[in-house]
Design a protein that fits this description.
Elements: H1 3-14, H2 22-96
């Protein structure tokens, strides 16, 4: 048994406040509640920011997919127009012969 360690523990425990006093207890409760409120609000803000980033990411993916489908539709329409134009040219050439 090391007596120096026991003396240091006793000194540390003697420095603790007297919790029998209602004013000190109220002060500790108030301070703890304030600190927990800050932790709660910061957690809430972090969650809101994360959800905002998630929604923003989903929206950008949706916009990209919409643009890609519009481009594909335009490409298919252009191909159809080219085919129709080629068919008309062939029809004109066969009529000219």
């Amino acid at each position: 048994m090391n007596h120096q360690i026991i003396y240091n523990l006793q000194d540390a425990l003697n420095l603790l406040p007297d919790l029998n006093d209602s004013v000190i207890t109220q002060s500790f409760s108030s301070t703890t509640n304030d600190e927990l409120l800050v932790v709660y609000l910061s957690s809430l803000m972090r969650a809101v920011i994360a959800l905002h980033a998630l929604v923003d990411n989903k929206a950008s993916i949706g916009r990209t997919e919409l643009e890609e489908t519009e481009e594909k539709k335009e490409e298919t329409e252009e191909k159809k127009e080219k085919k129709e134009g080629e068919k008309e040219k062939e029809a004109k050439e066969t009529k000219a012969e």
